[in-house]
From TrEMBL:
UniProt cross-references to PANTHER family, sorted A to Z: BETA-KLOTHO, GLYCOSYL HYDROLASE
SUPFAM superfamilies for this protein: (Trans)glycosidases
Identification of the protein by name: Klotho beta
InterPro entries: GH (IPR017853), GH_1_N_CS (IPR033132), Glyco_hydro_1 (IPR001360)
Listed GO MF terms: hydrolase activity, hydrolyzing O-glycosyl compounds
GO biological process terms, semicolon-separated: carbohydrate metabolic process
Family according to the record: Belongs to the glycosyl hydrolase 1 family.
Source organism, top-level taxon: Eukaryota
Length: 441
């Protein structure tokens, strides 16, 4: 047995749209995911909505109790932009009920000595911006997001030390505006995805610069962005040199697309420039200066969504594998010896599995052990791990057909009782021991 560093930030997380419910209550505005799930554009996916979901807006205290059961030191959750600003514009008056709700949650977490890790944008864009501007395709949203972020920093920042501007922008761009399987359901192809990604990067950078200048001197917090990735390696028996180059390009096409501008030199990987040529937007010399180094730590999402998507990207026998240790080592090699938060780690199970989730335990054990190996043997500075997710919720284009929660919810029952799964018992023990096996491979 080996132990994690003292003070390791064990945590769990949720996102607002997946769990809050109360989609049209207490003054909340409509999000693109509300519109998307209420439309017929979801074929062939389940015709399910998140109108109630896990009912976390009303049952937030039960979520905090679940966190207490686990013994975590952090809780990652997102703010709902259309709940705080029903018309989207953060220059107007906020929805007082929403401000009060998130303030109560943050205060209760701090009372329980649980660190709030707050995401500003986890995919639920105010629908009004989609209608008025075409959503993230329009660079006007860079300024709108900066205003929204500034409001959140101003109101909650004296109590929040870890901010995440947005969650997995790759999926927003590719699935939301390229392939149309996520909200807003646009099938604009590669050109749209590239434009959206460009605006998301610029919006993140603007928010970070604003925090750095206006809020950091007094609040002393840290700001990053959650980037999702797969891992790919050459298949045994294939020509190694060419295969390694293809693997590198595969990583640059997903993680590097966002990480190199933000953690590197403010520009896209050369392989993307070559591959997409005229379609890829360019950063001006001035933009490159204010985009680069706009994160205080590396926040990583490692779960099923990116890995499933990556299967279609494998060429010439490449092997997509859920190897978190090798991914963490690659990040260190590529972007320097940064502090790393695994902001989303976990797998999924079929809804029929229920509370006895041995497959999810297997994946949890595997991922956590890989993190420990990366710390102990590769010198990666991982300072926290967030097991995803705290409770069962609405799983995007899978609806309620798959589950990712540590706590089981029967969505047919109005009380939405949180019941710990075997994964919750297992994670609770890991946190209590601050330990896991760590055999070098």
């Amino acid at each position: 047995m080996d132990t994690f560093p003292q003070g390791f930030l064990w945590g769990s997380g949720t996102s607002a749209f997946q769990t809050e419910g109360a989609w049209n209550q207490d003054g909340k505005g409509v999000s693109i995911w509300d519109r998307f799930t209420h439309s017929s554009a979801r074929d062939p996916f389940p015709k399910e909505t998140a109108d109630v979901a896990s009912d976390s807006y009303r049952r937030w205290e039960e979520d905090v109790e679940a966190l207490g059961y686990l013994g975590v030191r952090s809780y990652s959750f997102s703010l709902s932009w259309p709940r705080l600003f029903p018309d989207g514009y953060a220059t107007g008056e906020p929805n007082a009920a929403a401000v009060a709700h998130y303030s109560r949650l943050i205060d209760r977490l701090l009372e329980k000595t649980i660190e709030p890790i707050v995401t500003l944008y986890h995919w639920d864009l105010p629908q009004v911006f989609q209608d008025q501007y075409g959503g993230w395709k329009n660079n006007t949203l860079v300024e709108r997001f900066e205003e929204y972020a500034a409001f959140c920093f101003h109101v909650f920042g004296n109590r929040v030390k870890y901010w995440l501007t947005m969650h997995n922008p790759y999926l927003v761009a590719v699935q939301g505006y390229g392939r149309g399987v996520h909200a807003p359901g646009e099938k604009g192809g590669l050109s749209s995805a590239l434009i959206v990604a460009h605006n998301l990067i610029r919006a993140h950078a603007k928010a970070w610069q604003n925090y750095n200048t206006r809020f950091r001197p007094t609040q002393q917090g840290k700001v990053s962005i959650v980037l999702g990735s797969h891992w790919v390696e050459p298949h045994v028996g294939q020509p190694i040199a060419a295969n390694v180059a293809l693997c590198q390009q595969s990583m640059e096409a997903v993680l590097g697309w966002f990480a190199k501008p933000i953690f590197g030199d403010g520009d896209y990987p050369a392989s993307l420039k070559t591959k997409h040529a005229t379609l890829l937007p360019t950063f001006t010399p001035e933009e490159r200066l204010w985009v680069q180094k706009t994160a205080d730590f590396f926040a990583l999402s490692f779960g099923p969504h990116n890995i499933h998507l990556a299967q279609s990207m494998a060429h010439n026998g490449q092997k997509i594998t859920p190897d978190l240790r090798r991914l963490l080592a690659w990040i260190k090699l590529e972007y320097g010896n940064l502090r790393v938060l695994v902001a989303e780690g976990g797998w999924f199970s079929n809804a029929s599995v229920g509370r006895e989730d041995t497959v999810a335990i297997y994946h949890m054990k595997r991922f956590i052990n890989q993190v420990l190996q990366a710390i102990k043997f590769d010198g990666v500075q991982v300072f926290g791990y967030s097991a995803w997710s705290l409770v069962d919720g609405f799983e995007w284009n899978y609806g309620y057909g798959v589950r990712r929660g540590l706590f089981y919810i029967d969505f047919s029952q109005p009380n939405r009782t949180r019941v710990p799964k075997t994964t919750a018992h297992y994670y609770k023990q890991i946190i209590a021991d601050n330990a896991r096996e760590a055999h070098d491979e």
